[in-house]
Specification:
heterodimer, A: mainly alpha, Rna Polymerase Sigma Factor, Chain: A, 2 domains, about 0% strand, globular, B: alpha+beta, six-stranded antiparallel beta sheet, 11 strands, about 20% strand, elongated
């Protein structure tokens, strides 16, 4: 296992001294997870492995733009893996555009946005909070992230009224917001 | 902070990477202009990070050492890029454009007058079935009354407008359900500029609608 701090140290080691051993450790920790994550959206093992590898190479390339005060390593990796998944789907279906152009990894214009939101401590807390969501709420959240389905597609799949899915999402987010804001104040 | 943020479920769709390019661009522009929505998206990204950490990793997802070796071998050709300069670049000719819009603005792009009423720049998002446009409306002018067969997403980038659902300023986001008619009027001051993403062809409901709709549906106006 790799703690949030250790993972952040490894990314910084790549940024400051192109540390290949640090890359190997990040790869061993994250590549199988990214592969598992991508496979949940229906990709075959080879394609998922390809996406995982591309995501980790991107970690190497962009290591200097990682900011541990803004995001945990896992959060940063999630955004990279998500963009790589979009690129992958796009290559299959449509002409390529580099998603990094506009699916921003970090806040593009507003540097004053709360910096602690994503940093290690909040992130650990978030993991606990996810455990506190109802099974119904968690199902919708997981389907969105793992299967990259819109809330409309989720409602269709679960044969639920759109309003029910929306309110589950809003309740889940309200809960996370409330708990995190209480922590911060 | 905008008074009309994008709804949570749309921010979730966006953070999960599930939106088609057109709606994703609309949400990206809103998020760039609205710190509270930015914060929600940051949190949702952190949820994504937490899910990646706790996803069960079945045996089929184990990665062989040879794959790591191949990745390591590639690193010689992949430089670690220097930390990017402070973001927030603004486009010269379109200084109201938030950063996520800039890659879509091409040299020589210019406003095109439509029906003598408003100006439009059509954005080309290859492969997306949405009609994605920037619209510019002089103060006091209105868009023709219309309705939509599908969803319509609007994000205000300059000025503001008012319709029967309220007043919308810079950063505000509106989701129009298909069956409702509306007739937005630009507020006093700078011309109102907004990105509009429409799922299906617009249907004009005013007196000239039945003559103009065939042109709209063919993408001529």
């Amino acid at each position: 296992m790799l703690s949030a701090d250790e993972a952040a140290d490894l990314i910084e080691a790549i940024a400051t001294r192109q540390d290949r051993a640090a890359f190997s450790r990040l790869f061993q920790h994250f590549a199988p997870r990214v592969k598992a994550f991508i496979m949940r959206s229906g990709a075959d093992p080879e394609a998922a492995q390809e996406v995982a590898q591309e995501a980790l190479i991107m970690v190497w390339r962009k290591a200097a733009s990682f900011d541990r005060t803004k995001a945990s390593a896992s959060t940063w990796l999630y955004t990279i893996a998500r963009n790589k998944r979009i690129d992958h789907l796009r290559r299959n279906n449509r002409p390529a555009i580099d998603t990094d152009d506009w699916l921003t990894v970090f806040a593009p214009e507003d540097d004053d946005a709360d910096k602690s939101v994503l940093a290690g401590q909040t992130y650990t807390r978030l993991k606990e909070l996810l455990g506190g969501l109802s099974a119904d709420q968690m199902l919708v959240i997981e389907k969105a992230f793992f299967e990259d389905k819109t809330h409309t597609a989720i409602a269709e799949e679960l044969k639920l009224p759109l309003g029910t899915v929306k309110s589950r999402i809003r309740l889940a987010l309200a809960r996370l917001r409330e708990a995190l804001e209480k922590d911060e104040s | 902070m905008s008074r009309h943020p994008a709804p949570d479920e749309l921010l979730l769709d966006y953070a999960a990477g599930a939106l088609p390019d057109g709606p994703a661009l609309a949400v990206a522009l809103h998020v760039a202009l609205d710190p509270r929505s930015q914060r929600t998206v940051d949190r949702l990204n952190a949820v994504g990070g937490a899910l990646i950490e706790r996803v069960p990793v079945p045996d089929v997802c184990a990665i062989e050492d040879t794959v790591l070796e191949r990745a390591l071998a590639r690193l010689d050709e992949v430089p670690v890029e220097p930390r990017p300069a402070a973001p927030g670049r603004r486009h010269q000719a379109f200084d109201w454009a938030p950063a996520p819009l800039v890659p879509h603005l091409r040299p020589g792009m210019d406003w095109r007058r439509v029906m003598g009423k408003f100006d439009e720049i059509r954005l080309d998002l290859p492969g997306d079935f949405h009609r994605v446009s920037l619209l510019r409306l002089e103060s006091g002018r209105g868009l023709p009354e219309h309705k939509h067969a599908g969803y319509e997403y609007t994000v205000v980038l300059q000025g503001g407008y008012t319709d029967e659902t309220g007043n919308y300023g810079v950063g505000d986001f509106a989701v129009g359900p298909g069956d409702h008619r509306h007739e937005p009027i630009a507020d006093p001051g700078d011309p109102c500029i907004a990105l509009i993403v429409v799922e299906n062809p617009i249907v004009l409901t005013g007196p000239w609608g039945r003559w103009l709709n065939p042109l709209v549906s063919r993408g001529l106006i």
